[in-house]
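can u do me a favor
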């Protein structure tokens, strides 16, 4: 017998619900204008040690920030050269989201966290402002240059936020810096971040939906010293990928470094109003010579 659906029981949204929903969509650029990053307590842990990683948001005082709510985490993994393990010990502790995991073997590990996505409706100008605030100034310029949003009164987009970092466990062991997590926007280092010193250059390929993204922009921020004045904020330096999606980043300062980028893509052909906007960060450490 075919299943019958009773249409007269479907609840219709009230005017108040629709107005509240529209208000939430319009505030997208205000609500989401934050960097999200993860950074380990140490970039090198001893053998058989528990790895502790902080998840924070903010950006202007990196690596200092505020805690990301644990309920926003939809994916947390630790990826080794030959393994991928879900991180289940995730909770807010003090001013930071804390992730704990004990790798089974020595080696280098990639830690990846994805936050829950949010859907928004914005004007084309609002999408451009959002991208510029999220490390996507070059991406905003591309949309304007290509007239991708021309003629639209509004744009519906799904905003995704990802964060990655690398850390060592024990001495030696297989490397994992070249492993991919399958994110919509992903940094893929071509040389090992753990071996970089001041004066070296990091070569990193940018992948959007698994493919190299030509001419995409990224921004670099080095961590503020703990003694920095209260009114000092991180300085961001912008770089642009080449035609193969590769960015060459000279490293001039020791300490933690955060890369960030944003990427906009249509959900599917024929839906000019529906977009994915992905933001991602990658934190690694630079050692003094």
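np, heres the sequence
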């Amino acid at each position: 017998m075919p299943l019958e659906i009773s249409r007269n029981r479907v609840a219709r949204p009230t005017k108040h619900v629709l107005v509240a929903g529209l208000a939430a969509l319009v505030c997208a650029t205000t609500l989401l204008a934050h960097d999200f990053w993860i950074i380990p307590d140490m970039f090198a842990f001893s053998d058989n040690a528990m790895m502790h990683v902080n998840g924070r948001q903010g950006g202007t005082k990196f690596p200092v920030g505020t805690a990301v709510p644990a309920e926003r985490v939809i994916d947390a993994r630790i990826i080794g050269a030959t393994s991928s393990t879900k991180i289940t010990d995730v909770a807010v502790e003090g001013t930071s989201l804390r992730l704990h995991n004990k790798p089974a073997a020595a080696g280098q590990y990639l830690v990846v966290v994805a936050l829950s996505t949010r859907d928004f409706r914005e004007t084309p100008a609002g999408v451009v402002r959002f991208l510029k605030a999220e490390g996507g100034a070059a991406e905003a310029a591309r949309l304007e240059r290509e007239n991708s949003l021309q003629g639209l009164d509004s744009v519906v987009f799904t905003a995704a936020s990802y964060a990655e970092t690398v850390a060592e466990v024990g001495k030696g062991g297989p490397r994992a810096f070249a492993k991919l997590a399958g994110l919509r926007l992903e940094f893929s280092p071509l040389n090992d971040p753990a071996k970089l010193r001041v004066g070296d250059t990091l070569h990193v390929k940018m992948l959007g939906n698994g493919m190299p993204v030509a001419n995409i922009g990224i921004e670099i921020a080095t961590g503020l010293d703990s003694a920095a004045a209260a009114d000092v904020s991180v300085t961001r330096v912008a770089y642009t990928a080449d035609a193969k999606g590769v960015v060459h980043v000279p490293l001039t300062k020791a300490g933690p470094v955060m890369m960030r980028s944003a990427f906009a893509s249509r959900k599917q052909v024929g839906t000019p109003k529906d977009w994915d906007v992905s933001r991602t960060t990658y934190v690694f450490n630079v050692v003094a010579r």
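Confidence is low (pLDDT under 50) at residues 1-33. hope that helps!!
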